[in-house]
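Many introductory courses stop at the sequence. We go one step further.
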Amino acid sequence: MNTLLTTALDLARTGLPVLPLRAGKVPFGNCPTCTRNACGGRPHMKTPGPCTCPAPCHAWAAATTDPDVITSPPWARAWERAEAVAYHPGGAGLTVVDLDNPAAVAWAREILPATQTVPTSRGEHWIYQGTMRSVNAVRSGVDLKSSMSYARWRDHGTGTTVPLPDVVRALADKPAAARPVPANMVPAPAGGGCRHRTPAYLERGITMAEQRITTAHDAVHTTVYRTFLAVLSTHGRCGCLTDGHVARLFTAAQAKGESLRHCADAWANARTALGV
């Protein structure tokens, strides 16, 4: 049996709703039946619709503990192409504090109560009992994954989960404007403002970029990068892009399963490619 499938079944038996991840640690795109939300689901808005699709569609909303679903032919085909197992923390009554760098880990060790801790490739996952809304970038290198989100499974780690502390819940209430913005995310103004025809031109461009990302049903990572490249090629040198515009693009990408780090990397790579 596929090793990932075996792991998924083992986790499901413990009550963790699981789903397969493809290359890039992102969920599988919607199947032809569900593409462009024809089934009624709305995964890009993070609100699952009344979809009975047997395939692992709709990202976190597809996560399940049902072994019959996990081993069904549509899922079996996905496991053959998968590169990792993920789970829906909120579906298991958990919250994952995703610490993405050593500085974030040091902050957690100083501020947060000890709990189950799982090493990751860049930092650690701290897992607590209790659910909350998921929020990315609550502080530098810190994401909160719980309801309507997924976390990659790595191992059981060490320690025992403890109740979700108020200090973590409070992070989700921090105003968005106060959260850190990745360095060099927005190009500096060059030449005194936008040289394009009207502000509506920029707005249409950002809206179209959001739609392009939202309607992608496969190759999401590539679509995000190419969309960022297109936006920057048109607006990257005139200083018209604001934090708000870029945040809209990042939000659309994250709703399709991209992590904040992947968004920041894709944006930086697009800027480098264009020299902006």
